[in-house]
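Please produce the structure of this protein holding flavin-adenine dinucleotide.
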Amino acid sequence: MSSDETTTARTAPARADSARHPRATDDVPTGEGHAIVLGAGIAGLLAARVLADRFARVTLVERDEFTGDGDGQEPSGPRRGIPQARHLHGLLDRGRTAIEQLYPGFTSEMARRGATTAEVLIGTRWYVADLRVAAAETGLTSVMATRPLLEAVLRERTLAMPGVRLQTRTTARGLLGAAHRVTGVVAAADDETLTLTGDLVVDATGRGSRAPEWLTRLGARAPQEERLEVDLGYSSQFYRRGPGQAEGPASIIISTGANGHGGGAIRVEDDRWHVTLAGMLGDHPPTDPAGFAAFAAGLAGPDIHDIVTGCEPLGDPVPHRFRHSVRRRFDRQPTVPQGFLVLGDALCSFNPLYAQGMTVAAQQALALRDCLHVPDRELPARFYAAAGAAVAAAWQLATSADLAHAGVVGQRGLRTKITNAYVARAQRAAHLDPQVARTFLRVANLVEPPAALLNPRIARRILLHGNV
Ligand SMILES: Cc1cc2nc3c(=O)[nH]c(=O)nc-3n(C[C@H](O)[C@H](O)[C@H](O)COP(=O)(O)OP(=O)(O)OC[C@H]3O[C@@H](n4cnc5c(N)ncnc54)[C@H](O)[C@@H]3O)c2cc1C
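Below is the modeled complex.
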Protein backbone atom coordinates (compact mmCIF):
# COMPACT_ATOMS: atom_id res chain seq x y z
CA MET A 1 0.00 0.00 0.00
CA SER A 2 1.12 3.53 -0.47
CA SER A 3 0.04 7.13 0.03
CA ASP A 4 -0.73 8.75 3.33
CA GLU A 5 -4.45 8.23 2.70
CA THR A 6 -3.87 4.58 3.65
CA THR A 7 -2.88 5.47 7.17
CA THR A 8 -6.07 6.76 8.68
CA ALA A 9 -7.09 3.51 10.36
CA ARG A 10 -5.07 3.96 13.51
CA THR A 11 -5.37 7.67 14.05
CA ALA A 12 -6.64 9.09 17.31
CA PRO A 13 -9.05 12.01 17.17
CA ALA A 14 -8.51 15.21 19.09
CA ARG A 15 -9.73 14.57 22.59
CA ALA A 16 -9.16 17.69 24.64
CA ASP A 17 -11.62 20.54 24.74
CA SER A 18 -9.92 23.07 22.50
CA ALA A 19 -12.28 25.87 23.55
CA ARG A 20 -10.92 25.61 27.09
CA HIS A 21 -7.38 26.18 25.86
CA PRO A 22 -6.88 29.33 23.81
CA ARG A 23 -4.29 28.94 21.06
CA ALA A 24 -1.07 30.82 21.76
CA THR A 25 -0.84 32.19 18.22
CA ASP A 26 -4.37 32.70 17.00
CA ASP A 27 -3.15 35.38 14.62
CA VAL A 28 -1.01 32.90 12.62
CA PRO A 29 -3.10 31.51 9.79
CA THR A 30 -3.16 27.74 9.28
CA GLY A 31 -1.39 27.08 6.00
CA GLU A 32 -1.19 24.31 3.45
CA GLY A 33 0.63 21.04 3.18
CA HIS A 34 1.39 18.05 5.34
CA ALA A 35 4.01 17.73 8.06
CA ILE A 36 4.94 14.33 9.51
CA VAL A 37 6.44 14.13 12.98
CA LEU A 38 8.11 10.86 13.96
CA GLY A 39 7.77 10.17 17.69
CA ALA A 40 5.09 11.54 20.01
CA GLY A 41 7.35 12.11 23.01
CA ILE A 42 7.89 15.57 24.45
CA ALA A 43 9.90 16.91 21.49
CA GLY A 44 7.51 15.44 18.91
CA LEU A 45 4.46 16.90 20.62
CA LEU A 46 6.04 20.34 20.90
CA ALA A 47 7.10 20.21 17.25
CA ALA A 48 3.60 19.16 16.14
CA ARG A 49 2.17 22.04 18.16
CA VAL A 50 4.17 24.65 16.25
CA LEU A 51 3.77 22.92 12.88
CA ALA A 52 -0.02 22.99 13.29
CA ASP A 53 0.13 26.79 12.88
CA ARG A 54 1.82 26.48 9.50
CA PHE A 55 0.60 23.22 7.92
CA ALA A 56 -2.94 22.19 7.13
CA ARG A 57 -2.23 18.66 8.37
CA VAL A 58 0.24 17.32 10.92
CA THR A 59 0.58 13.56 11.43
CA LEU A 60 2.33 12.28 14.54
CA VAL A 61 3.69 8.78 13.93
CA GLU A 62 4.30 6.86 17.16
CA ARG A 63 5.27 3.24 17.69
CA ASP A 64 3.61 3.03 21.12
CA GLU A 65 -0.04 2.91 21.98
CA PHE A 66 -1.49 5.28 24.58
CA THR A 67 -3.87 3.98 27.15
CA GLY A 68 -5.95 6.14 29.44
CA ASP A 69 -6.18 9.18 27.15
CA GLY A 70 -9.54 10.86 27.10
CA ASP A 71 -11.22 8.60 29.66
CA GLY A 72 -10.95 11.17 32.43
CA GLN A 73 -8.23 9.13 34.20
CA GLU A 74 -4.68 10.30 34.54
CA PRO A 75 -2.12 8.05 32.80
CA SER A 76 -1.44 5.01 34.92
CA GLY A 77 2.26 4.84 34.20
CA PRO A 78 5.08 4.93 31.72
CA ARG A 79 4.93 3.29 28.30
CA ARG A 80 7.41 1.07 26.53
CA GLY A 81 8.99 3.67 24.21
CA ILE A 82 9.92 5.97 27.10
CA PRO A 83 11.75 3.86 29.68
CA GLN A 84 13.11 7.05 31.26
CA ALA A 85 9.56 8.01 32.27
CA ARG A 86 9.92 5.81 35.35
CA HIS A 87 12.53 8.24 36.68
CA LEU A 88 12.30 11.71 38.10
CA HIS A 89 11.76 14.35 35.40
CA GLY A 90 12.37 17.91 36.57
CA LEU A 91 11.28 20.71 34.25
CA LEU A 92 13.62 23.71 34.32
CA ASP A 93 11.96 27.10 34.51
CA ARG A 94 13.21 28.03 31.03
CA GLY A 95 11.36 25.00 29.69
CA ARG A 96 8.25 25.74 31.69
CA THR A 97 7.99 29.27 30.32
CA ALA A 98 8.71 28.06 26.76
CA ILE A 99 5.92 25.48 27.07
CA GLU A 100 3.66 28.15 28.58
CA GLN A 101 4.16 30.23 25.41
CA LEU A 102 2.97 27.33 23.29
CA TYR A 103 0.22 26.12 25.62
CA PRO A 104 -1.08 29.07 27.67
CA GLY A 105 -2.22 27.97 31.12
CA PHE A 106 0.09 24.92 31.13
CA THR A 107 1.40 25.52 34.67
CA SER A 108 -2.05 25.96 36.20
CA GLU A 109 -3.38 22.95 34.30
CA MET A 110 -0.55 20.81 35.64
CA ALA A 111 -1.31 22.02 39.18
CA ARG A 112 -5.01 21.30 38.71
CA ARG A 113 -4.17 17.74 37.65
CA GLY A 114 -1.99 17.01 40.65
CA ALA A 115 1.44 18.54 40.05
CA THR A 116 3.08 20.39 42.93
CA THR A 117 4.35 23.86 42.13
CA ALA A 118 6.84 25.79 44.24
CA GLU A 119 9.29 28.66 44.13
CA VAL A 120 12.50 26.84 43.24
CA LEU A 121 14.42 27.69 46.42
CA ILE A 122 11.51 28.22 48.81
CA GLY A 123 9.56 25.31 50.19
CA THR A 124 12.25 23.02 48.77
CA ARG A 125 15.66 21.81 49.93
CA TRP A 126 18.59 21.88 47.57
CA TYR A 127 22.02 20.50 48.27
CA VAL A 128 24.73 21.19 45.75
CA ALA A 129 28.17 19.66 46.13
CA ASP A 130 27.04 18.28 49.49
CA LEU A 131 26.07 21.68 50.97
CA ARG A 132 22.52 23.03 51.53
CA VAL A 133 21.83 25.97 49.22
CA ALA A 134 20.59 29.12 50.97
CA ALA A 135 16.86 29.85 50.68
CA ALA A 136 16.28 32.72 48.26
CA GLU A 137 13.61 34.26 46.07
CA THR A 138 14.64 33.19 42.55
CA GLY A 139 11.62 34.20 40.48
CA LEU A 140 11.55 30.61 39.17
CA THR A 141 8.75 28.06 39.48
CA SER A 142 9.14 24.31 39.79
CA VAL A 143 6.38 22.11 38.38
CA MET A 144 6.74 18.68 39.92
CA ALA A 145 4.89 15.79 38.36
CA THR A 146 5.52 12.42 36.82
CA ARG A 147 6.66 12.35 33.22
CA PRO A 148 3.48 10.45 32.14
CA LEU A 149 1.28 13.28 33.45
CA LEU A 150 3.42 15.96 31.80
CA GLU A 151 3.30 14.10 28.51
CA ALA A 152 -0.46 13.45 28.75
CA VAL A 153 -1.17 17.16 29.23
CA LEU A 154 0.98 18.10 26.23
CA ARG A 155 -0.52 15.30 24.14
CA GLU A 156 -4.10 16.36 24.83
CA ARG A 157 -3.35 19.99 24.10
CA THR A 158 -1.50 19.12 20.88
CA LEU A 159 -4.21 16.81 19.61
CA ALA A 160 -6.73 19.58 20.20
CA MET A 161 -4.99 21.66 17.51
CA PRO A 162 -6.80 21.75 14.17
CA GLY A 163 -5.31 19.34 11.64
CA VAL A 164 -3.21 17.32 14.10
CA ARG A 165 -3.72 13.57 14.25
CA LEU A 166 -1.85 10.81 16.00
CA GLN A 167 -1.10 7.48 14.36
CA THR A 168 -0.07 4.96 17.01
CA ARG A 169 1.47 1.45 16.77
CA THR A 170 3.38 2.64 13.73
CA THR A 171 7.18 2.46 13.57
CA ALA A 172 9.14 4.66 11.18
CA ARG A 173 11.67 2.55 9.27
CA GLY A 174 13.17 4.93 6.74
CA LEU A 175 12.83 8.00 4.59
CA LEU A 176 11.51 8.50 1.09
CA GLY A 177 13.14 10.85 -1.39
CA ALA A 178 16.70 11.54 -2.40
CA ALA A 179 19.87 12.98 -0.92
CA HIS A 180 18.77 16.56 -1.57
CA ARG A 181 15.09 16.26 -0.53
CA VAL A 182 13.08 14.03 1.79
CA THR A 183 9.51 13.50 0.62
CA GLY A 184 8.08 11.08 3.15
CA VAL A 185 8.47 8.13 5.43
CA VAL A 186 8.29 4.35 5.25
CA ALA A 187 6.71 2.86 8.34
CA ALA A 188 5.57 -0.49 9.67
CA ALA A 189 2.25 -0.98 11.40
CA ASP A 190 1.65 -4.55 12.59
CA ASP A 191 2.55 -6.57 9.50
CA GLU A 192 1.78 -3.80 7.00
CA THR A 193 4.28 -1.49 5.35
CA LEU A 194 2.97 2.03 4.90
CA THR A 195 4.30 5.05 3.10
CA LEU A 196 3.39 8.55 4.11
CA THR A 197 4.24 11.50 1.93
CA GLY A 198 4.65 15.01 3.25
CA ASP A 199 6.22 18.41 2.71
CA LEU A 200 8.24 18.19 5.91
CA VAL A 201 9.38 15.20 7.98
CA VAL A 202 10.56 15.87 11.54
CA ASP A 203 12.49 13.17 13.39
CA ALA A 204 11.72 13.31 17.13
CA THR A 205 12.31 9.62 17.83
CA GLY A 206 14.67 10.28 20.73
CA ARG A 207 18.29 9.37 21.40
CA GLY A 208 17.96 6.06 19.57
CA SER A 209 17.11 7.92 16.34
CA ARG A 210 18.08 6.09 13.15
CA ALA A 211 18.24 9.34 11.14
CA PRO A 212 22.00 9.01 10.41
CA GLU A 213 21.44 5.55 8.88
CA TRP A 214 18.27 6.63 7.02
CA LEU A 215 20.10 9.60 5.50
CA THR A 216 23.03 7.44 4.44
CA ARG A 217 20.61 5.11 2.67
CA LEU A 218 19.34 8.10 0.66
CA GLY A 219 22.90 8.99 -0.29
CA ALA A 220 23.10 11.98 2.08
CA ARG A 221 25.86 12.40 4.66
CA ALA A 222 25.31 11.37 8.26
CA PRO A 223 26.23 14.05 10.80
CA GLN A 224 29.34 13.90 12.98
CA GLU A 225 28.67 12.83 16.54
CA GLU A 226 30.17 14.18 19.74
CA ARG A 227 29.96 11.89 22.75
CA LEU A 228 30.87 12.09 26.40
CA GLU A 229 30.89 8.80 28.33
CA VAL A 230 29.47 9.17 31.85
CA ASP A 231 28.08 5.67 32.53
CA LEU A 232 25.30 7.05 34.69
CA GLY A 233 22.95 4.72 36.55
CA TYR A 234 19.54 5.67 37.96
CA SER A 235 17.37 3.77 40.39
CA SER A 236 13.90 5.08 41.20
CA GLN A 237 11.06 4.27 43.51
CA PHE A 238 7.69 5.74 44.51
CA TYR A 239 6.56 6.08 48.14
CA ARG A 240 3.24 6.94 49.71
CA ARG A 241 3.54 10.34 51.39
CA GLY A 242 2.79 10.06 55.11
CA PRO A 243 0.16 12.29 56.76
CA GLY A 244 2.80 14.08 58.83
CA GLN A 245 4.64 15.12 55.69
CA ALA A 246 1.77 17.15 54.27
CA GLU A 247 3.45 20.43 55.15
CA GLY A 248 6.97 19.29 54.33
CA PRO A 249 9.09 20.50 51.42
CA ALA A 250 7.81 20.10 47.88
CA SER A 251 11.11 18.78 46.67
CA ILE A 252 14.51 17.81 47.87
CA ILE A 253 17.17 17.80 45.26
CA ILE A 254 20.66 16.63 45.94
CA SER A 255 22.88 17.40 43.06
CA THR A 256 25.88 15.15 42.68
CA GLY A 257 28.52 15.28 45.35
CA ALA A 258 32.23 14.81 44.74
CA ASN A 259 31.80 11.01 44.62
CA GLY A 260 29.38 11.29 41.67
CA HIS A 261 26.39 10.16 43.74
CA GLY A 262 23.20 12.19 43.61
CA GLY A 263 19.49 12.01 44.12
CA GLY A 264 16.20 13.81 44.18
CA ALA A 265 12.75 13.47 45.69
CA ILE A 266 9.70 15.34 44.43
CA ARG A 267 6.08 15.42 45.51
CA VAL A 268 3.95 14.16 42.65
CA GLU A 269 0.32 13.29 41.91
CA ASP A 270 -1.66 11.00 44.19
CA ASP A 271 0.19 11.97 47.36
CA ARG A 272 3.40 10.25 46.41
CA TRP A 273 7.12 10.92 46.62
CA HIS A 274 9.08 10.05 43.51
CA VAL A 275 12.66 9.30 44.55
CA THR A 276 15.52 8.87 42.10
CA LEU A 277 19.09 8.00 43.08
CA ALA A 278 21.98 8.32 40.65
CA GLY A 279 25.62 7.39 40.36
CA MET A 280 28.20 8.10 37.67
CA LEU A 281 31.02 6.11 36.12
CA GLY A 282 29.57 2.68 36.78
CA ASP A 283 29.01 3.30 40.49
CA HIS A 284 25.25 2.84 40.21
CA PRO A 285 22.58 2.84 42.93
CA PRO A 286 21.25 -0.62 43.78
CA THR A 287 17.72 -1.74 43.07
CA ASP A 288 17.22 -3.90 46.14
CA PRO A 289 15.41 -2.00 48.92
CA ALA A 290 18.23 -2.35 51.47
CA GLY A 291 20.89 -1.25 49.00
CA PHE A 292 18.66 1.61 47.85
CA ALA A 293 18.31 2.84 51.44
CA ALA A 294 22.05 2.50 52.08
CA PHE A 295 22.85 4.56 48.97
CA ALA A 296 20.35 7.24 50.10
CA ALA A 297 22.04 7.33 53.50
CA GLY A 298 25.26 8.44 51.83
CA LEU A 299 23.72 11.58 50.32
CA ALA A 300 24.10 15.01 51.88
CA GLY A 301 21.29 15.79 54.32
CA PRO A 302 19.00 13.21 55.93
CA ASP A 303 15.94 14.11 53.82
CA ILE A 304 15.89 11.47 51.11
CA HIS A 305 16.97 8.71 53.45
CA ASP A 306 14.13 9.69 55.81
CA ILE A 307 11.60 9.28 52.98
CA VAL A 308 13.10 5.98 51.85
CA THR A 309 13.06 4.48 55.34
CA GLY A 310 9.96 6.23 56.73
CA CYS A 311 7.39 5.99 53.92
CA GLU A 312 5.51 3.07 52.49
CA PRO A 313 7.22 1.92 49.26
CA LEU A 314 5.01 1.49 46.21
CA GLY A 315 6.60 -1.25 44.10
CA ASP A 316 10.32 -1.89 43.87
CA PRO A 317 13.15 0.37 42.70
CA VAL A 318 13.69 0.27 38.92
CA PRO A 319 17.02 0.91 37.15
CA HIS A 320 18.06 2.87 34.08
CA ARG A 321 21.48 3.08 32.51
CA PHE A 322 22.66 6.07 30.46
CA ARG A 323 26.12 5.49 29.06
CA HIS A 324 26.89 8.66 27.17
CA SER A 325 25.65 12.08 26.15
CA VAL A 326 25.53 12.56 22.39
CA ARG A 327 25.26 15.60 20.14
CA ARG A 328 24.65 15.12 16.41
CA ARG A 329 26.17 18.02 14.51
CA PHE A 330 23.60 18.63 11.76
CA ASP A 331 24.52 22.30 12.21
CA ARG A 332 27.98 21.52 10.82
CA GLN A 333 26.81 19.72 7.67
CA PRO A 334 27.73 21.63 4.52
CA THR A 335 24.36 20.64 3.06
CA VAL A 336 21.31 19.01 4.60
CA PRO A 337 18.37 17.56 2.66
CA GLN A 338 15.35 19.81 2.31
CA GLY A 339 12.12 18.63 3.84
CA PHE A 340 13.73 16.92 6.85
CA LEU A 341 14.88 17.99 10.26
CA VAL A 342 15.85 16.38 13.53
CA LEU A 343 15.08 17.68 17.00
CA GLY A 344 14.89 16.77 20.68
CA ASP A 345 17.05 13.94 22.01
CA ALA A 346 17.57 12.76 18.43
CA LEU A 347 19.57 15.95 17.91
CA CYS A 348 21.22 16.14 21.32
CA SER A 349 20.80 13.88 24.33
CA PHE A 350 22.14 15.42 27.54
CA ASN A 351 23.28 13.85 30.79
CA PRO A 352 19.88 13.70 32.58
CA LEU A 353 21.40 14.78 35.91
CA TYR A 354 21.06 18.39 34.81
CA ALA A 355 17.40 18.04 33.73
CA GLN A 356 17.94 19.91 30.47
CA GLY A 357 16.40 17.63 27.82
CA MET A 358 12.77 18.72 27.89
CA THR A 359 13.72 22.37 28.22
CA VAL A 360 16.05 22.30 25.23
CA ALA A 361 13.36 20.46 23.24
CA ALA A 362 10.97 23.32 24.10
CA GLN A 363 13.57 25.91 23.07
CA GLN A 364 13.99 24.04 19.78
CA ALA A 365 10.23 24.11 19.23
CA LEU A 366 10.24 27.89 19.68
CA ALA A 367 13.17 28.16 17.26
CA LEU A 368 11.22 26.06 14.73
CA ARG A 369 8.15 28.27 15.18
CA ASP A 370 10.25 31.37 14.45
CA CYS A 371 11.85 29.73 11.39
CA LEU A 372 8.40 28.81 10.04
CA HIS A 373 7.42 32.47 9.86
CA VAL A 374 9.69 32.74 6.82
CA PRO A 375 8.66 30.76 3.71
CA ASP A 376 10.35 27.39 3.66
CA ARG A 377 13.61 28.03 1.80
CA GLU A 378 16.47 26.25 3.52
CA LEU A 379 14.29 25.55 6.54
CA PRO A 380 16.48 22.74 7.96
CA ALA A 381 19.72 24.76 7.85
CA ARG A 382 17.97 27.79 9.35
CA PHE A 383 16.48 25.59 12.06
CA TYR A 384 19.82 24.00 13.00
CA ALA A 385 21.40 27.45 13.22
CA ALA A 386 18.54 28.85 15.32
CA ALA A 387 18.26 25.83 17.63
CA GLY A 388 22.04 25.51 17.87
CA ALA A 389 22.43 28.32 20.40
CA ALA A 390 20.18 26.65 22.96
CA VAL A 391 21.77 23.24 22.35
CA ALA A 392 25.31 24.62 22.61
CA ALA A 393 24.63 26.52 25.84
CA ALA A 394 23.14 23.48 27.58
CA TRP A 395 25.79 21.11 26.19
CA GLN A 396 28.57 23.37 27.43
CA LEU A 397 27.08 23.55 30.94
CA ALA A 398 26.48 19.81 31.16
CA THR A 399 29.76 18.60 29.72
CA SER A 400 31.79 21.07 31.81
CA ALA A 401 30.03 19.79 34.93
CA ASP A 402 30.71 16.19 33.88
CA LEU A 403 34.37 16.96 33.28
CA ALA A 404 34.63 18.25 36.85
CA HIS A 405 34.57 14.52 37.79
CA ALA A 406 38.12 13.25 37.45
CA GLY A 407 37.02 9.87 36.05
CA VAL A 408 35.20 11.31 33.03
CA VAL A 409 37.45 11.01 29.99
CA GLY A 410 37.59 14.15 27.87
CA GLN A 411 39.56 17.22 26.91
CA ARG A 412 40.04 19.63 29.82
CA GLY A 413 41.42 22.83 28.40
CA LEU A 414 42.54 25.66 30.65
CA ARG A 415 39.15 27.30 30.21
CA THR A 416 37.30 24.23 31.50
CA LYS A 417 39.64 23.96 34.49
CA ILE A 418 39.24 27.63 35.43
CA THR A 419 35.47 27.49 34.88
CA ASN A 420 35.10 24.41 37.05
CA ALA A 421 37.22 25.87 39.86
CA TYR A 422 35.08 29.02 39.77
CA VAL A 423 31.81 27.06 39.68
CA ALA A 424 32.95 25.00 42.69
CA ARG A 425 33.55 28.25 44.55
CA ALA A 426 30.15 29.58 43.46
CA GLN A 427 28.50 26.39 44.76
CA ARG A 428 30.12 26.88 48.15
CA ALA A 429 29.12 30.55 48.23
CA ALA A 430 25.52 29.61 47.32
CA HIS A 431 25.42 27.78 50.62
CA LEU A 432 25.82 31.07 52.56
CA ASP A 433 24.72 33.83 50.23
CA PRO A 434 21.13 34.06 48.95
CA GLN A 435 22.12 36.32 46.05
CA VAL A 436 24.67 33.83 44.79
CA ALA A 437 22.14 31.03 45.37
CA ARG A 438 19.58 32.92 43.28
CA THR A 439 21.98 33.50 40.39
CA PHE A 440 23.30 29.95 40.53
CA LEU A 441 19.79 28.48 40.26
CA ARG A 442 18.84 30.90 37.48
CA VAL A 443 21.88 29.77 35.48
CA ALA A 444 21.14 26.08 36.17
CA ASN A 445 17.54 26.67 35.01
CA LEU A 446 18.89 28.09 31.72
CA VAL A 447 17.13 31.39 32.48
CA GLU A 448 20.38 33.35 32.66
CA PRO A 449 23.66 32.64 30.87
CA PRO A 450 26.64 31.33 32.86
CA ALA A 451 28.19 34.79 32.47
CA ALA A 452 25.69 36.00 35.10
CA LEU A 453 27.99 34.39 37.67
CA LEU A 454 30.75 36.73 36.50
CA ASN A 455 28.72 39.88 37.09
CA PRO A 456 31.01 41.97 39.39
CA ARG A 457 28.33 42.19 42.11
CA ILE A 458 27.94 38.40 42.19
CA ALA A 459 31.62 37.63 41.56
CA ARG A 460 32.59 39.68 44.64
CA ARG A 461 30.18 37.61 46.75
CA ILE A 462 31.49 34.37 45.26
CA LEU A 463 35.06 35.34 46.08
CA LEU A 464 34.04 36.47 49.58
CA HIS A 465 31.87 33.50 50.52
CA GLY A 466 33.33 30.73 48.40
CA ASN A 467 35.92 29.61 50.95
CA VAL A 468 33.74 27.44 53.18
C1 LIG B 1 16.84 8.55 33.02
C2 LIG B 1 16.50 9.87 32.37
C3 LIG B 1 16.04 10.92 33.15
C4 LIG B 1 15.73 12.15 32.56
N1 LIG B 1 15.38 13.20 33.35
C5 LIG B 1 15.09 14.38 32.78
C6 LIG B 1 14.74 15.51 33.58
O1 LIG B 1 14.72 15.45 34.81
N2 LIG B 1 14.41 16.66 32.94
C7 LIG B 1 14.47 16.78 31.58
O2 LIG B 1 14.17 17.85 31.04
N3 LIG B 1 14.83 15.75 30.80
C8 LIG B 1 15.14 14.57 31.37
N4 LIG B 1 15.51 13.52 30.57
C9 LIG B 1 15.53 13.71 29.11
C10 LIG B 1 14.12 13.67 28.55
O3 LIG B 1 13.52 12.41 28.80
C11 LIG B 1 14.16 13.97 27.04
O4 LIG B 1 15.06 14.99 26.76
C12 LIG B 1 12.81 14.42 26.54
O5 LIG B 1 11.89 13.40 26.76
C13 LIG B 1 12.78 14.77 25.05
O6 LIG B 1 13.01 13.60 24.36
P1 LIG B 1 12.38 13.29 22.94
O7 LIG B 1 10.94 13.64 22.89
O8 LIG B 1 13.30 13.86 21.95
O9 LIG B 1 12.54 11.71 22.92
P2 LIG B 1 11.74 10.64 23.73
O10 LIG B 1 11.16 11.21 24.97
O11 LIG B 1 12.66 9.48 23.88
O12 LIG B 1 10.53 10.28 22.76
C14 LIG B 1 10.75 9.58 21.55
C15 LIG B 1 9.40 9.07 21.06
O13 LIG B 1 9.59 8.49 19.78
C16 LIG B 1 8.98 7.21 19.74
N5 LIG B 1 9.73 6.43 18.74
C17 LIG B 1 11.01 6.01 18.82
N6 LIG B 1 11.38 5.41 17.68
C18 LIG B 1 10.29 5.46 16.85
C19 LIG B 1 10.06 5.05 15.51
N7 LIG B 1 11.02 4.44 14.78
N8 LIG B 1 8.84 5.27 14.96
C20 LIG B 1 7.84 5.89 15.67
N9 LIG B 1 8.03 6.31 16.95
C21 LIG B 1 9.23 6.12 17.52
C22 LIG B 1 9.09 6.68 21.17
O14 LIG B 1 8.13 5.67 21.44
C23 LIG B 1 8.81 7.98 21.94
O15 LIG B 1 7.43 8.20 22.10
C24 LIG B 1 15.85 12.30 31.15
C25 LIG B 1 16.31 11.24 30.36
C26 LIG B 1 16.66 10.04 30.98
C27 LIG B 1 17.20 8.92 30.12
